[in-house]
Amino acid sequence: MAAGAGTGPGTGTGAGTTAGTAAWLTVLTTTDAPEKAEALARGAVEARAAACAQIAGPVTSVYRWKGAVETASEWQVLFKTTGARYDALEAYLLAAHDYDTPEIIATPVVRGSADYLRWVEEETVEGETVEEETMEGETGE
Question: Is residue 115 packed enough to be buried (19+ CB in 10 Å), middle (13-18) or exposed (0-12)?
């Protein structure tokens, strides 16, 4: 998809969203190459803005951009995060994405496995590092 695809009403930082009010979220974005999708996924997980990300594709996207209807192959990246970390994830995607107006859509998770949702919370704690986790595991804390 050409740079700028994924545009529409309510785009921009926090525009028209109440993502911060949900405990857990899935957040979707798309990009035009599998390598870009993996880089976005890895960067968000490394930054603890998301606990994990799944990449699917290619998918066919049909969209209107600059007055013309376009069709393109894209890869979807679905992030799992918390409402508390949504702003960090959105800021990361806006900075790292090469589209002019990337698709960033958050959907509340209303139910899920308690163990999985607890894991999402633990893996998105801001400021924790791998070293801290390793030290905790070695000392039995």
Answer: exposed
